[in-house]
Structure formats: C-alpha cells, structure tokens
Amino acid sequence: MAYFIGISPSDINNSFIKRYLYGLRRNDDGEIFFTIVDQLSAGEQELVINEIGPTEENYPFFEEGIDFLEGILDDHELNYKNLRYPQFKWDDRFLYYYVDNDGRLVIRINQNYIYPEGISSEGL
After folding, report:
1. Is residue 124 a contact partner of residue 36, using CB atoms and an 8 Å limit?
2. Over 60: is that where the pLDDT of 122 sits?
3. Hey, is 72 helix, strand or coil?
4. Which domain holds residue 78?
5. Can you tell me the distance from the alpha carbon of 41 to that of 24, in angstroms, rounded to the nearest whole number?
6. Domain count, the chain
7. Cα 49-97-78 angle, rounded to 5 deg
8. Is 69 within the bounds of a domain?
9. Whether 96 contacts 107, CB under 8 Å
C-alpha cells in the first residue's frame, strides 16, 4: 500500500487539483516555446520556474493550481526577470497546441497531433 503526504495520484485523477501545467515563453530571438508538464507522467519531469539570477528578480508566488498570465508589462518588460515562463496556467484537461499547415495556432483537447513526415515539433 502506498501512502502520500499532500496530493495523491487519485486526487489528481479525480480533478481535485489541476493535472497539467502549461508554460509559455519567448527567447531573445523571438522564438516561442511552449511546455507541458503532466504531474502523473511516469519518470521525472522538471520545470524551471526561476532562472539563476538575483533573488529580487525571482517570481516568489508560484503555487500549484494558480495561473500566472501577467508576466509582461505593457512596454514588454518582464515583471520578474528570472521567471522562465512569464505566462503559465494549470488545467485538468490535456490541451495540445500545434501549428497547422496554414500557420495557425490550433488547440486539441485530450488528443495529440501527429506532425507530417519531415516536420519537427521541437521548440513548439
């Protein structure tokens, strides 16, 4: 028998908390990166919240299940310079984002997208 302190896998399955964390960031070259972390995934997954830097530039309020969608000010300056994903959200559904053949960003709910032969999903 397994014992858990805090949240158990059955709690996650029963949607007592959000299962998936989605993070969105852009690098200095303007490339967009989207990350999905599944809390029930077998094996180790790691998500860096704050990059290495001065403590006062860290995002100090990360909390499981709480979204953060205001990482960028109006003048495109980051509120928290060390925050790796200036926008992140939690959801209990598997939301699969992909770029279709016409260049549109599309979302599928609880369903993967298989990229055509020769097209990579790396960095999406």
Report:
1. no
2. no
3. strand
4. 18-92
5. 20
6. 1
7. 35
8. yes
9. yes
**Of 92, 88, 68, the residue nearest 20 (C-alpha):** 92
pTM here? 0.68
Could you give the CA distance from residue 21 to residue 35 in angstroms, rounded to a whole number?
8
Domain assignment present for residue 123? The answer is no
pLDDT at 46 over 70: yes
Q: What is the 3-state secondary structure (H, E, C) of 47-66?
A: CCCECCCCHHHCCCCCCCCC
Whether residue 95 contacts residue 107, with contact meaning beta carbons closer than 8 Å, is answered with yes
In a domain, 104, yes or no: no
pLDDT of residue 58: 92
Identify each DSSP E strand in the chain by its residue range.
Answer: 20-26, 32-38, 87-91, 95-99, 105-109
Nearest-CA neighbor of 47 among 83, 93, 92, 11? 83
